[in-house]
Amino acid sequence: MNKFMMSVMAVLMLITILGVSGCATTDTLTDDEKNIAYTQYIIENELESIKHIRAFNFRGWSPLTDDYLVLSSSFKKRYLIELKNGCYDLGGSYTIALKQSMTNQLSINFDAILVLNDFPKRCYIKSIYPINKAVMKELQAIGKLKENKNHLS
Q1: Is 101 helix (H, G, I), strand (E, B) or coil?
Q2: Can you give the pTM of this predicted structure?
Q3: Predicted confidence band of residue 3 (pLDDT cuts 50, 70, 90)
Q4: Which residues contact 10 (CB under 8 A, 6 or more apart)?
Q5: CB 77 within 8 A of CB 70
Q6: What pLDDT is stored for residue 74 in this prediction?
Q7: Closest to 34 (Cα-Cα) out of 74, 75, 82, 84
Q8: Where would I find the H helices in 1-153?
Q9: Domain ranges of the chain
Q10: DSSP characters for 12-48?
Q11: Main-chain phi, psi angles of 33, to 5 degrees
């Protein structure tokens, strides 16, 4: 093999190595991968959707993706919320508000999450799943599964 061919092969190998190592540095799931994982979690754990929450007093929230978040209410109650058509920049927002059609009640289809940033958005609720603290922690860990797998290998 001549020097030119050896140089070309060395450059191609370097590009391949850099490309593979670049892929290996991704340590979290994409939002699309997380959404698929949340849907699978809901199905596998047989979480049941409810149409509305009565006596709902908003206490806090935790974004999962632009399509899913967890809302907290009084008495340490938690709910996994799935949004219709997602809600752009939900995870990047510091503040949200609720648009409720009835006081102290949160309902699918009629009520919305308001993302309060430079361009406020109204994102309607598609599904509500009552969950407990353990389920919330499992859902929050889903986005970190890829990172944990990389550290194990």
Answers
A1: coil
A2: 0.77
A3: low
A4: none
A5: no
A6: 84
A7: 82
A8: 3-24, 31-44, 133-142, 145-152
A9: 31-152
A10: HHHHHHHHHHHHHT--S--HHHHHHHHHHHHHHTTPP
A11: -65, -40
3-state SS assignment for residue 54:
strand
Digit-coded pLDDT (tens) for 76-133: 899 999 999 889 889 888 899 999 999 999 999 999 999 988 778 899 999 999 999 9
As given in the structure block, the two tokens for residue 74 are: 């009084």
Kindly list the distances between the CA atom of residue 28 and the CA atoms of 40, 86, 145, in Å, as whole numbers in the listed order. 18, 20, 7
Mean pLDDT across the chain, nearest whole number?
A: 82
Q: What angle do CA 72, 78, 80 make, to 5 degrees?
A: 105
Single-letter residue type at 148: N
Residue 65 φ then ψ, to 5°: -145, -170
Please determine, for residue 67, whether its predicted confidence score (pLDDT) is greater than 60: yes
**Tell me, what's the pLDDT at 151?**
39
Would you state the structure tokens that stand for residue 116, as one six-digit string?
């309060």
- Phi and psi (nearest 5°) for 103? -60, 140
- Among the listed residues 73, 77, 75, the one whose alpha carbon sits nearest the alpha carbon of residue 56: 73
Amino acid at 103: T
Which residue type does 92 have? G
